[in-house]
Design a protein that fits this description.
By secondary structure, the protein is mainly alpha-helical. It has helices spanning 4-15, 26-33, 39-64, 85-96, 100-122, 147-151, 172-178, 189-206, 216-228; strands at residues 134-135, 138-139, 156-158, 166-168. The protein has one domain (4-228). The chain contains nine helices and four strands; from the N terminus they run H-H-H-H-H-E-E-H-E-E-H-H-H. The longest helix has 26 residues, at 39-64.
Length: 230
């Protein structure tokens, strides 16, 4: 199955400043028309990268004895933005496998979360809305969750070229429980760089020029639009 039309629709929606109007970009269409479908060729690389992320996270978590089992802060209530088309498409792959009932429920919740975020943004406050994929404290698309969902919570460092190394203490729940524990080296930089390089190659192969910055709720809303325009 070719994912070229799907990539095209999602990129046009995202490029439309999240107005969720599925107008297919003729320029992207022209660039894609003579190319093979790129998603399948990159999917395995993305899954392999996710496996490396999970392994690095697990190593650190085992060192600390940390188990994420839900907390008051709950990272699923944090408004994370995601920046890759590849992850957007991979999440949609999981979304498409859900029952129609679950899809409708998630789309409804995604709209509510998006509206709450929009109101909060206009009023200069932070909205702590539960991710629309979280049902009864479980992620319905756990195996397809994006990078930040996989890495959040554990102390880590970022070592950007020409900048001072940045250290992050982990989530509040972790910090409260393990603050006195010796730091286990966890440099996210190579994982970020590998994701950026993979996305760059994917966009070049797909002929996509727009940047993406979307929450999970906004991604789900684009899925509804792409399905509606099939």
């Amino acid at each position: 199955m070719s994912h070229t039309p799907e990539i095209n629709r999602i990129s046009s929606i995202i490029g439309g400043t999240k107005q969720k109007v599925a107008i297919i970009s003729s320029s992207i269409n022209r660039q894609l028309s003579s190319r093979p479908d790129p998603y399948d060729a990159f999917r395995k690389n993305l899954v392999d990268l996710y496996d490396r992320m999970d392994n690095r996270y697990d190593q650190a978590a085992i060192h600390y004895g940390f188990v994420c089992s839900g907390c008051e802060e709950n990272c699923c209530r944090t408004k994370f933005h995601h920046h890759t088309y590849l992850e957007c498409l991979y999440l949609k792959e999981g979304f498409d496998a859900l029952s129609e009932e679950n899809k409708h429920t998630i789309i409804y919740r995604a709209r509510a979360v998006h509206d709450a975020h929009s109101i909060a943004d206009r009023n200069g406050i932070v909205a702590r809305e539960m991710c629309p994929l979280n049902v009864d404290s479980r992620c319905l698309l756990y195996s397809h969750r994006p990078m930040i969902c996989r890495l959040h919570g554990i102390p880590h460092e970022l070592n950007r070229p020409g900048q001072t190394i940045q250290f992050h203490q982990g989530c509040n729940d972790f910090h409260d429980a393990f603050n006195a524990t010796d730091y286990y080296p966890f440099d996210r930089t190579p994982l970020y760089m590998q994701m950026a390089a993979l996305e760059k190659r994917f966009k070049a192969e797909s002929g996509i020029n727009q940047k993406v910055k979307m929450t999970i709720a906004e991604m789900i809303m684009t899925y509804h639009e792409t399905d509606r325009h099939r």
